[in-house]
C-alpha cells in the first residue's frame, strides 16, 4: 500500500474509527512529510497521543505496524517532483501553511533520524568494511563534485594529517580528473554522489575500476549507478523538507571513516599528527588565546 492508498483508506474509514484512531488518522492526513521523516515516538509526542495508538491505526488498515505506513510515506517523499524548482515550490507552499518553526523543527528531526540510521548494525558493518579497504590501500584518491566536494575534501584533509597517502581530485582548472592517471591496483577511489548523480563522478568511478583500483562509494541508494561500480558502499539518506538534499549524513559518515582509519593506522598516525601539528605551529596557523596579564597586588 502506497501513500495514496493509505490516504484513500483513511478517508473511507474515518467516520467508523474510534475517536483516538480518528485523531491519529487526522495527524497522518495533515502531516505527510512528518509521517515520512519523523520517528513514531516523535510523531506521537507532537500529536499528543500514545505511540501504541499509531500502531493500532496501521493494523486497522491491514498493515503489520506503523513502520510499514511510514515506509510507504517515505517512498512517496523520495518520489517528489523532479528538479530543485519544483521541490522549492512545495517548500514555499508548506511555509505558507505552517510557517518557519514547523519547517525548522522538521529539518532537524529529519537530520537526526538520518544520522541515527548510521548507527544501525548494518550501516556500522558497511562503515567498518569501507574503513578497512581505505586503510589498507596504497593511496586513496578522493573524488566528489558540487555538494559532495566538501565531504571528500574532509576525508583527504584528515588522511594527510595522519600521514596516509591521499590525492584530492579537485577539478581546479578542469584538471582534477587528470589525477586519476596514476590510479591502479592497490589504490582506492573514495567517491561521493547522491541523486541527481553527477555524470563526471560516474565516469571517474568507471575509469578507476577499469584501472584495477578498488572503489568505496558513499551514495544514497543501493540501486544508484555509483553503488553498481563499488566494492564497498556506504549508504546515507538525503531527503528533507527542503528542496535541496542533505549532505549532513555524508559528513557524519566521513568523520566516522576518518576516525576508524586513524585507529587502524596506529602509531604511524600518532607520529604523523605530531609532525602535522609542529608544521602548523611553525607557521602560526591557528590563533591561540593569550593569557591575561596578572595585575600587581
UniProtKB/TrEMBL annotation:
Protein source organism: Bosea vaviloviae
Pfam families in the cross-refs: HTH_6, SIS
Q: Does the keyword Nucleus apply?
A: no
The HTH rpiR-type domain covers which part of the protein? 4-80
UniProt keyword annotation of Zinc-finger present: no
Name this protein carries in UniProt: Transcriptional regulator
Q: Name one GO biological process term.
A: carbohydrate derivative metabolic process
Task: Tell me which InterPro entries the record gives.
Answer: Homeodomain-like_sf (IPR009057), HTH_RpiR (IPR000281), RpiR-like (IPR047640), RpiR-like_SIS (IPR035472), SIS_dom (IPR001347), SIS_dom_sf (IPR046348), WH-like_DNA-bd_sf (IPR036388)
Amino acid at each position: 500500500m502506497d501513500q495514496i492508498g493509505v490516504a484513500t483508506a483513511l478517508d473511507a474509514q474515518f467516520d467508523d474509527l474510534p475517536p483516538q484512531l480518528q485523531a491519529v488518522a487526522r495527524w497522518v492526513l495533515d502531516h505527510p512529510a512528518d509521517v515520512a521523516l519523523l520517528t513514531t515516538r516523535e510523531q506521537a509526542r507532537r500529536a499528543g497521543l500514545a505511540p501504541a495508538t499509531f500502531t493500532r491505526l496501521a493494523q486497522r488498515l491491514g498493515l503489520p505496524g506503523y513502520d510499514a505506513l511510514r515506509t510507504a510515506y517515505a517512498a512517496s517523499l523520495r518520489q517528489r517532483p523532479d528538479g530543485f524548482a519544483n521541490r522549492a515550490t512545495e517548500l514555499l507552499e508548506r511555509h505558507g501553511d505552517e510557517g518557519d518553526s514547523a519547517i525548522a523543527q522538521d529539518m532537524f528531526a529529519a537530520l537526526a533520524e538520518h544520522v541515527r540510521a548510521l548507527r544501525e548494525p548494518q550501516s556500522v558493518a558497511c562503515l567498518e568494511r569501507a574503513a578497512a579497504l581505505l586503510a589498507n590501500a596504497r593511496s586513496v584518491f578522493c573524488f566528489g563534485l558540487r555538494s559532495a566536494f566538501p565531504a571528500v575534501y574532509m576525508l583527504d584533509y584528515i588522511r594527510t594529517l595522519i600521514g596516509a597517502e591521499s590525492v584530492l581530485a579537485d577539478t581546479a582548472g578542469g584538471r582534477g580528473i587528470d589525477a586519476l592517471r596514476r590510479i591502479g591496483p592497490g589504490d582506492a577511489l573514495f567517491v561521493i554522489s547522491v541523486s541527481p548523480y553527477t555524470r563526471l563522478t560516474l565516469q571517474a568511478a568507471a575509469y578507476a575500476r577499469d584501472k584495477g583500483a578498488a572503489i568505496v562509494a558513499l551514495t544514497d541508494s543501493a540501486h544508484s549507478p555509483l553503488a553498481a561500480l563499488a566494492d564497498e558502499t556506504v549508504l546515507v539518506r538525503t531527503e528533507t523538507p527542503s528542496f535541496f538534499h542533505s549532505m549532513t549524513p555524508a559528513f557524519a559518515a566521513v568523520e566516522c571513516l576518518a576516525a576508524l582509519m586513524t585507529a587502524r593506522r596506529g602509531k604511524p598516525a600518532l607520529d604523523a599528527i605530531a609532525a602535522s601539528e609542529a608544521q602548523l605551529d611553525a607557521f602560526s596557523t591557528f590563533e591561540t588565546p593569550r593569557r591575561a596579564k596578572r595585575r600587581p597586588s
